[in-house]
Amino acid sequence: QRVVLMDPSEDPDDVLRANRSREKTFVFDMVFDHRATQEEVYVSTTKKLIGGVISGYNATIFAYGPTGAGKTYTMLGTDCEPGIYIRTLDELFKALEAATEEMDYRVSMSYLEIYNEVIRDLLNPSSGFLDLREDSRGSIQIAGITEVSTTNAQEVPGATVRGNKQRTQEPTAANKTSSRSHAVLQVTVTQKSQRQEIGEEMRIGKLFMVDLAGSERAAQTQNRGKRMKEGAHINRSLLALGNCINALSEKGGSRAQFVNFRDSKLTRLLKDSLGGNSRTVMIAHISPAGTSFEESRMTLIYAYRAKNIKTQV
Questions:
Q1: 16-25: long-range contacts at Cβ-Cβ below 8 A with a sequence spacing of 24 or more?
Q2: CATH for 38-307?
Q3: Which region ranges are annotated with the description Disordered (predicted)?
């Protein structure tokens, strides 16, 4: 459960800074090394959330970290080693089929990306930029997004892989196919009781799986021009997410903290799934390379804060 981060530039003979080592220790619920399989990561992080989604809670899984540390691999995976998207949906359908005696269920999913603070539908990219709207019940909707209703898990991998091909990926100095946008796969499970006399009892559980864009500094990827602008937008939305996480984790403190969800499209979309009746998992990715020490440090501090969020259902 412990990560120890050593500073590669630390000089053992440096007398002045002898007492100020930059070695840091972080404690998390679970730490995986390079030998961990996709299955292990899935079982320890996401498997427990599925029962909650079926009983009407929301759940969110974030993949966070600098470019090239393996976020898209964790979420999407490869054909022979599928990632969290596909494993979660497989399990979700299995659990629903086991519980359908009493309930009629419907599963719908949408897949979108947030790029430069505009929303694009990855399942129907020709629809252009979409708007976020709030409906009368106060829940955030995306006007005009394609929702695919599925009843079996076989259709899902095709849809996510097709959607992922539409993502904005650009080469940076860190990574040839760096994702320059946040991808959000939203799965909504609606269940209705088959027995009429109970009345219309509906359970709605939402599952968000978010593959965030890389959180590295511009100096690391030698970004110029357009890449630099993208990076600024990415960092802005990650900063907004960080601010929301900070405010939520301090909420039990002395002062009532205002949580500014409206700072970016990403946080507005995830408003219900950060606070409230939601279970949230953040999978932080770091690279073992000495050159990305600063990125790793920032990523671990960010994830460590997220751990302190207490939600009131």
A1: 24/297, 24/300
A2: 3.40.850.10
A3: 158-180
